[in-house]
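lol ok so funny story. i was supposed to be doing the assay writeup but got distracted and ended up predicting the structure for this chain instead. priorities right. anyway since i did it might as well share w the group, maybe its usefull for someone
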Amino acid sequence: MNITQRTTRLSSGDGTATDAATQTVTDTGIISARLDRLPTTQAVWKLILLLSLGFFFEVYDLLYSGYVAPGLIKSGILTSTTVGLFGMSGVASFIAALFSGLFVGTLACGFLADRFGRRAIFTYAMLWYVAANTVMAFQDTAPALIFWRFVSGLGIGVELITIGTYMSELAPKHLRGRAFAVCQTIGFVAVPVVAFLSYLLVPRTVLGMDGWRCVVLLGGLSALFIWYFRRNLPESPRWLASKGRFAEAELILQSLEDRVEKQYGMPLPAIGQCEPTVREANFADIWKPPYRDRTMMLIIFHVFQTVGFYGFANWVPSLLVKQGITVTSSLLYTTIIGLAAPLGPLLGYLIADRFERKHVIVATAAINIVSGLLFSQASAAVAIVSLGVVLTLCSNISSFTYHAYQQELYPTTIRARAVGFVYSWSRLSAIVTSFIIAFFLREFGVAGVFWFIAGAMTFVIIAVGLLGPRTLGRSLESISH
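and the output, tada:
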């Protein structure tokens, strides 16, 4: 085991600070305590903003499916519905291919960030899905289009898990909720961006190219930023410490502390109580106390929350067209609704570290039920847009909340793998949900779709309300016990 020494101030049992001229760092608990005591400064926010910029491109690539769907139908590559429940020529197949890739990426590849580090996988997963999307943009047949959407989904799935894990380990505990709120605020700016670009480009031909292809290719701009991410993002000190690489963790943490202290203008606060850490957790431990109930809760949650989130976000243009609204008008309405996407987590910033995350998830699910059923009956433009905004706000407040929440429930040594496993259920759900929503839309109309969503949100409320633990203001290490 590597042993490093540094001068620091530790908090004694009675809460007073004591000098420790040669504090020996031999435990990840001390590394974590030093991270958690960091005040909110520019150096800390820079790390959060860099990860948030990566999340922006992630959301762009994740959510453009619904916005380019009318263009794919217009070009004759896909159809709006399918003859059979699992037909492979419709929009449902395109959406299902993405979530199939996400499912495999999160379930089978979540271990990569635990094994090779958060920093490396963050950058290489981004390169993967940018390359796959670029190839996909030049396909002219449904099978090829669906295959490359699956391949891009693999990279996106790995990236989503890595960003959340990375964020939870770099952000101090008093800032963790707000860090995820800011990350998702910036990330969900991609929603109005992709909606507006789709409004401008999808109905048109640009330089002889179908507009939907331009929307897909523009997402590849993230490749230009990869070198910047790689250079400016440090590896997670928590992850390094969990691997016994204390010397490297110390160098990164010391550099961060020096920058924070300089910006803070005074000595850093005393290190708080060092929680004992779970050093050697195995993946099988997710089925043992205290993680078993958390795992079951998150599986149920992800199976059903996906119905509400993607059932609206990926299908809203098609739902509006089904209600008799033209493709151009539906994309305009969707663009306006999309403007609310970053406002959800931005408003959530005000409550992120004030209310228990499980309570926020339950409340937003309840509002989703009511707003969705009203949306299904709306016909006036004002009502459609207003209710669409409410649904978007609730979905995105819930999104940043549960992304923070699920990362808090497992120890560092298995965090990416455990979250990847439970999160993969949302991808599996989304695969099936795409076809079920297409079926409900064809057989029961828009109202049938939202009754289906309402039933799913009811299960979310029950699972999180009964099984979800409290995490607000607690260190990652204390939650792991």
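Residues 1-26 have pLDDT under 50 and may be disordered. The chain is about 70% helix and 5% strand.
back to the writeup now i swear
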